[in-house]
Design goal:
This protein has 256 residues and is mainly beta. The radius of gyration is 17 Å and the shape is globular. It is 11% helix and 42% strand. Strands 1, 2, 3, 4, 5, 6, 7, 8, 11, 12, 14 and 17 form a twelve-stranded mixed β-sheet that branches. It has a five-stranded mixed β-sheet with strand order 9-20-19-15-16, with no helix packed on it. A three-stranded antiparallel β-sheet has the order 13-10-18. Strand 1 and strand 2 form a beta hairpin.
Length: 256
């Protein structure tokens, strides 16, 4: 199932997307998408609604340096255990919403990533049971103020600006995340070309590790790390991140 959050003629709702291309339809879900969805009977052509961020998490937990070549491109070693940091919920935006680049922070980079969406409250879940805690997967962009990341040491400010976590276009509940192609483009030029099979710490391990630290709530998001090839984005550009089977997340860049 592909789960989305949409703005439709009567308001905002969760929905299931059926079909592809010009024939795609969205079916409104009552209340929330967790568990067995209940449908209201309302439906619209996908072209007649606006896709929003597919989920509004209580927290976004991100994993740093989880691809060895990305760590190497900045002269870093891969940590022996997952390196965690938090992005505030206010960083989250949806497809086609602008990444608002602060004009006084120097270099700002895109980072294409696979995102894990949690489906139920979990604490201390073992890797062998991690799949039962996962609602599905979506595409993410871990936007980063690179100069601040370097100067601050801690990454909260560099990663935490409003709009610095685009998510979308929807959540796929059935895809196998173990070996998916991930590509990032800026104004149509290929910048990143990786595979999720190159993750150092795999998805089940990450869910286990994070849930040892903090309780994960339905809708929480884990960003799994980015492949090599990250780079700067500036006002007027457009960033598109594609993960096979999950679709393409596109956002324009605007300076504040």
């Amino acid at each position: 199932m592909r789960l989305a959050r949409i703005a439709h003629p009567s308001g905002v709702a969760f929905a299931s997307i059926e079909g592809d291309g010009d024939d795609a339809q969205v079916l409104e879900i009552a209340e929330h998408p967790f568990g067995q969805p209940n449908f209201t009977g309302k439906r619209w052509p996908l072209a007649d609604v606006r896709l929003l961020a597919p989920i509004l998490p209580s927290k976004v937990i991100a994993v740093g340096r989880n691809y060895s070549k990305h760590a190497a491109e900045f002269g870093n070693e891969v940590p022996s255990a997952p390196m965690l940091f938090i992005k505030p919920s206010t960083t989250v935006i949806g497809p086609n919403a602008p990444i608002r680049r602060p004009s006084d922070v120097g270099r700002v980079d895109f980072e294409g990533e696979l995102a894990v969406v949690i489906g139920q409250p979990v604490k201390n879940v073992p890797a062998a049971r991690a799949a039962s805690a996962i609602l599905g997967y979506t595409v993410a962009n871990d936007v980063s103020a690179r100069d601040l990341q370097k100067s601050d040491g801690q990454w909260g400010r560099a990663k935490g600006f409003d709009t610095f976590c685009p998510l979308g276009p929807w959540i796929d509940t059935s895809i196998d995340p173990s070996d998916l192609a991930l590509r990032s483009e800026v104004d149509g030029e290929l910048k990143q070309d990786g595979r999720t099979s190159d993750l150092v710490h795999k998805v089940p391990e990450l869910v286990e590790f994070v849930s040892r630290v903090m309780t994960l709530l339905p809708g929480d998001v884990i960003l799994t790390g980015t492949p090599e090839g990250v780079g700067p984005i500036v006002d007027g550009q457009s960033v598109s991140i594609t993960i096979d089977g999950l679709g393409t997340l596109t956002n324009p860049v605007q300076s504040l």
